[in-house]
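[step 3/7] inverse_fold.run input=structure_tokens len=254
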């Protein structure tokens, strides 16, 4: 009796052990997905941010290769605060291989004040003369043609301002202007000194004048007037000048 009881006890024990090893039964056989923990969400967000950053970097590199120049460190603007997308192709195509655009800017907009003032003053003069002559047809026609010439001249000055560029790269300083692209250039290795001048009006309105000196040679580019953001531009040009001198004479710093 004791033996059978022990055997039954053993059988019931193995039976209970076997039933404990079975997975829990879920009605309908539905398998529920495991819940997403906050740590998993942070990991997924970090991975998505890394992929987005890599895509932006690749797209910027592609645009840089297509444009033929390397974008500045901020990737969008130069010291002149003009985005690369606004620098025309006729300017960018003049950059050599490996040449990096650092500054791209127009003359300061103060140069446009004079044409505007002349147009307004000439209009007042035309009105006064026409009134004094009783609006005689011949006088009005002559004055009208003269004022139209002044307006065309002012329009030309605005257009010339839009096509004039001061370009500073890691290799040279260029000024491009005119319909036929007159280009004056001075390589940085030949540049020995930079004179920086700001008048009272220049300090009030934010422009300056650069005088570039080379090693006793005739140079095509000497004076640059109405430089926009002159302090930042002077600092950038000075840094590029020192860097070019270090590259030309690497043993002097040792």
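[step 3/7] decode complete -> sequence:
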């Amino acid at each position: 009796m004791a033996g059978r009881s022990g055997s039954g006890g053993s059988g019931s024990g193995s039976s209970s052990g076997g039933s404990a090893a079975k997975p829990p039964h879920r009605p309908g056989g539905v398998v529920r997905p495991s819940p997403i923990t906050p740590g998993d969400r942070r990991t997924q967000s970090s991975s998505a941010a890394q992929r987005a950053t890599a895509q932006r970097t690749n797209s910027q590199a592609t645009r840089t290769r297509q444009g033929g120049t390397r974008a500045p460190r901020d990737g969008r603007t130069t010291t002149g605060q003009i985005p690369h997308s606004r620098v025309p192709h006729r300017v960018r195509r003049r950059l050599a291989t490996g040449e990096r655009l650092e500054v791209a800017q127009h003359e300061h907009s103060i140069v446009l004040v004079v044409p505007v003032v002349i147009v307004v003053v000439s209009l007042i003069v035309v009105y006064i003369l026409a009134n004094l002559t009783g609006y005689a047809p011949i006088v009005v026609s002559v004055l009208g043609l003269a004022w139209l010439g002044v307006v065309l001249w002012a329009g030309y000055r605005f257009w010339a301002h839009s096509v004039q560029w001061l370009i500073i790269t890691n290799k040279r300083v260029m000024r491009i202007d005119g319909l036929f692209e007159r280009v004056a250039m001075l390589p940085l290795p030949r540049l020995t000194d930079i004179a920086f001048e700001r008048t009272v009006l220049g300090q009030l309105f934010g422009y300056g004048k650069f005088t570039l000196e080379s090693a006793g040679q005739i140079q095509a580019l000497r004076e640059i007037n109405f430089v926009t953001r002159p302090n930042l531009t002077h600092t950038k040009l000075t840094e590029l000048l020192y860097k070019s001198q270090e590259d030309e004479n690497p043993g002097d710093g040792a």
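[step 4/7] annotate
Residues 38-67 form the longest helix (30 residues).
The CA atoms of residues 24 and 40 lie 27 Å apart.
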